[in-house]
Here is the input.
Amino acid sequence: MTFSTDFSYAYGKPTVSGTIKTDAEDFKVFELPDYSLSGSGEHVYLKVRKTNANTGWVASQLADFAGTSHKDIGFAGRKDRYAITEQWFSCYLPGEQGPNWEMLEIEGVELLEVTRHARKLRKGDLAGNMFELTLRQVSSEPADHKVLESCLHQLRDNGVPNYFGEQRFGRENGNLEYADKLLKGCKSIRHNRDIYLSAARAYMFNHFLSSKISEDGWLGISDDESGPMYGMSRDPRPGEDNLPEECEHWCAGLQERRVKSGSRNLKLKPQDLRWRFEGECLILTFSLTSGSFATSVLREMMDYKESEH
Here is the structure.
């Protein structure tokens, strides 16, 4: 099965190139919580700084250290592995002092803060994320800097398509391959079902948005317009008949698995966008709402490649 991730651009395909994630310090992510912690309750909250560490792996290490089930560990969202990220985890430890957290030793993880709260931290429990990104091997030609400056002003004023990042689809679109089998009735897939279903819905949304840009133009889409996250619905959802042929049985498969339908904003506006050039490097800082992807901002301004790890 072939999957196309050549989605439409808002401002045309970028002409300036660069490299991301050459080092972990080039991609920094900081969670922006939308809650305040009470300091008491059945859940221990742990703020950590992780470097080149997978969120799910860190969660399992915390569960092992606390001697609790992996299901009792919560986090607001999965963060990039090849990066430095600061995020919160929760650990269900009712009526217990718990382990001595100062003794926690996980490779690539630094414990920053420990407190308690009344409920588990769940996916999406954050206002957004703040990013500090360094793009390397960027042209130092004044003309290219002018092109980037112009594009950055457009991004700040008119936003970018709120695409799901390609990392959602897995290496070489592997998550989509499994999603296709799952949604066509394969019963042998027992693990990571939620990840595969999420990848399928992201792919379908991206194609809906890409077609919308091609038909209406970027400026023809209003700031508050939303698109379908396909799932259970009595009536066909917008764009369902125009999805690519590889998605032919996916809507029916989502219905059969009783996946709830939803919606997602079509436009994404980076907040507090700032930038500066340092030789062949471009340093960016900005904030995004929960569930949005920094790579969706980068793809609109630069033909970037990710450094191999």
User: Anything to note?
Assistant: The chain is about 25% helix and 25% strand.
